[in-house]
């Protein structure tokens, strides 16, 4: 059974059909990459699933629960996380404080539907922050002001803030955008850790095709709001429709 499944998922912005009948299913433990040209609807798909945007039509189910109509915090508490944008980093706080706030707010900010995930003491919040900073390789920068981090470290701090909510499924929207090759390598390593050691399920939006073909179990291609291909990296690489829509002209 799929962990996450959408049926006929549709999103209109005024007259624009940003998503047109999207059907996807993602199994527990998979890494699925979403690719497609700019404006294809990748971020919209993530925003609709995570409740940041209301869908126009269609179904979304996560571990048997219907997500349509739920608020973002309810979806977070069901175990779906996302790596946030830089705007979610609190500029006045240290790296560690940023992760602690995210961890604490998840558990205490609104009522928690999952008591087993609850951290009741500040000590537990601190332990969790230490673990997360270690995972993303920022343990040496714990007491640095978050704003002073280099760009790549800031992006990985966003991932840690996303992880602070204890997700089982994590959406990562262009986590390597603007990174140096070395920062990209560190991020790929982090993604592998999340899959192998944390048993997570990941949906990755990524423009670097080397990264996509390297880490993905399956790749879904969106084009003008529609899924035009789903398959293994090899199948997608050789798919004529994908090459036409996306790879052709851009790579090589
Ligand atoms: P991608 O992430 O694949 O580049 P997006 O999901 O951001 O694409 O955008 C898909 C389409 O929806 C684009 O045409 C974009 O301009 C439009 N769009 C995205 N968000 C909004 C919004 N909040 N209001 C109106 N149009 C939007
Ligand atoms: Mg996008």
Write a structural description.
With 252 residues, the protein is α/β, with parallel strands linked by helices. Helix content is 36%, strand content 23%. The longest helix has 16 residues, at 181-196. Helix 3 packs across helix 4 (122-135) and helix 3 (95-108) packs parallel to helix 5 (151-163). The protein has helices at residues 42-49, 72-77, 95-108, 122-135, 151-163, 181-196, 209-215, 233-237, 240-247; strands at residues 4-13, 16-26, 31-35, 57-62, 65-66, 80-82, 169-173, 201-205, 218-223, 226-231. It contains 9 helices and 10 strands. The strands form 2 sheets. The chain has a 6-stranded mixed beta sheet, sandwiched between helices. It has a 4-stranded antiparallel beta sheet with strand order 2-1-4-5, covered by helices on one side. The structure holds adenosine-5'-diphosphate and magnesium ion (MG).
Summarize the helices and strands and which ones pair or pack.
Layout: E1 4-13, E2 16-26, E3 31-35, H1 42-49, E4 57-62, E5 65-66, H2 72-77, E6 80-82, H3 95-108, H4 122-135, H5 151-163, E7 169-173, H6 181-196, E8 201-205, H7 209-215, E9 218-223, E10 226-231, H8 233-237, H9 240-247
Parallel strand pairs: 3-8, 3-9, 6-7, 7-8
Antiparallel strand pairs: 1-2, 1-4, 4-5, 9-10
Helix pairs in contact: 3-4, 3-5
This protein binds adenosine-5'-diphosphate and magnesium ion.
